[in-house]
Amino acid sequence: MNQLDSKNVKSRSQHFALQRRHCIAVALSLAISGACDAAVASSPARNKEPAKAAPGAKPGPVLVLGDSLSAEYGLTRGKGWVQLLQQRMNDEKNPRKVVNASISGETTAGGRARLASLLRQHEPGILILELGGNDALRGLALQSTQQNLEVMIKAAREAGAQVLLVGMQVPPNYGAAYTEQFAEMFRSIADAQKLPLVPFLLSGIGDAADAEQWFQSDRIHPNAQAQPQMLANVWPKLRPLLK
Length: 243
Hints:
This protein is an alpha/beta fold. It is built from 7 helices and 5 strands.
């Protein structure tokens, strides 16, 4: 989990376009805010007791904190997997609302900086945490990514929310060791925190034999056709939390 040196990062960037079937796993946005990794917020509810809903009260919403994969990048509004999740819940007569707080290009540092205000504003019952891929794209230290994720998980729990962690994968040109360490990071966090985990949001898409048909023309972001599969990857882990 050591910081990748600048030479390796440059090399990965030069070969990034050649990784058609795998590079989507981390290339979540072409435009990443340079300030994201500098904005770090403290846990928003360190001394606050978890909120308790009154008997018969409407359950808190599902808050999705993610990057371009959850922010409908390049899609017609309402066609992304998060909106499909709301439709699925409506069909099943689940009263919860889904709040999509995802931003294209978001890093774990950016999500950590925004989470406190999101928890105060929406008082979610469930947080779906889909961040980390842009950290890998920028060559950020895995230790920093893991710490940011753990801080967000702690903050959400202290605010009374359950957490679903959504994992990502990186392309093989990052090297076998880094590729395994990145995937293991999500598994390790989920095991240690006793969280449900979606191992790979783009399972059946980014790793499919016919991967090209599932992406937009940039060969980076999933198209509308891929969104139901993304929801299918999330739903089995989310559904038990909705009860």
